[in-house]
Automatic annotation (TrEMBL):
It comes from the Bacteria. It comes from Thioalkalivibrio paradoxus ARh 1. Pfam families: Cupin_7. Residues 4-78 form the ChrR-like cupin domain. This is Cupin.
Amino acid sequence: MLRQADDGGISGFIRIRKGATLPRHRHIAAEETYMIQGRMDLGDGRIAQAGDYLVMEPDEVHEMVAIEDSLFFVTAHRGVEWL
């Protein structure tokens, strides 16, 4: 379940299977993520796991690789630029 706003922002639940990748990207405004299940490698030495709350600052480049089947809720305002 994902909602996209008129300004390109998104909010909703994302389920990703073990080994899947969300490619390098950045957000025009801040992104907030709450990990509900699983573990994700953020590509910068950090591992996010169930219960973690993450904030990616505007223009912060990041990617995510699922270490386990994962479920998270994300809110990102004003769109995504895929790199």
